[in-house]
Known about the structure:
238 residues, alpha/beta, Rossmann fold, 2 domains, 38% helix, 26% strand, binds adenosine-5'-diphosphate, binds magnesium ion, ABC_transporter-like_CS, branched-chain amino acid transmembrane transporter activity, ATP binding, transport, AAA+_ATPase
Amino acid sequence: xxxxxxxxxxxxxxxxxxxxxxxxxxxxxxxxxxxxxxxxxxxxxxxxxxxxxxxxxxxxxxxxxxxxxxxxxxxxxxxxxxxxxxxxxxxxxxxxxxxxxxxxxxxxxxxxxxxxxxxxxxxxxxxxxxxxxxxxxxxxxxxxxxxxxxxxxxxxxxxxxxxxxxxxxxxxxxxxxxxxxxxxxxxxxxxxxxxxxxxxxxxxxxxxxxxxxxxxxxxxxxxxxxxxxxxxxxxxxx
Length: 238
Ligand SMILES: Nc1ncnc2c1ncn2[C@@H]1O[C@H](COP(=O)(O)OP(=O)(O)O)[C@@H](O)[C@H]1O
Ligand SMILES: [Mg+2]
């Protein structure tokens, strides 16, 4: 079996030395689309922040392509190929769509290369192409979210981590968002996403983990989780 691209081992992490994540272990294989699902406050964002180097483990470790990144700074982790798109559509609201995207290329300085990536991305996000000169804050909520993801892809990450992309979107937009994430994964980018929208996330994921009060309480293929009585009762209202 191939090696995991990301492996989280017995992770404890929190704020000011007080853990809110208690022994989380998970893995993502190259090419996979993995979802961590759970209610508000379960610890999804804290887990993502720790993988991306914005928080640090109190205990346990995080391996990316076999390298222990637990003590790495966020910019080093980004450089290794992990791109984190945080919750809440953090874009540069006063800059154009195109400028927002170019800034996402970070370490890439070649204008030709940046242009090439832009054009490639606009195929996945045609709506951004139509609006490339528009100021970001004038986009709709769904378009801003798409822009945040597209910007996260400009650094050509090996692993794209998405935090609550569906939050605040209307149902038709959520569906579009999930289709877009599927399309990104099909182009070869490994995706780890966290979602409160359990059903929607599991419908596009290969595998999933259920997180509750800082612990993984269930893991399996997306199908197994969708069929699980516990998941259906707790998250799908069935
Ligand atoms: N900056 C912070 N300082 C202290 N506690 C926090 C902070 N951010 C989140 N928490 C706490 O950590 C727990 C997990 O939160 P979070 O990871 O944001 O959950 P989720 O993303 O699943 O909603 C919650 O109990 C939350 O109150
Ligand atoms: Mg969160």
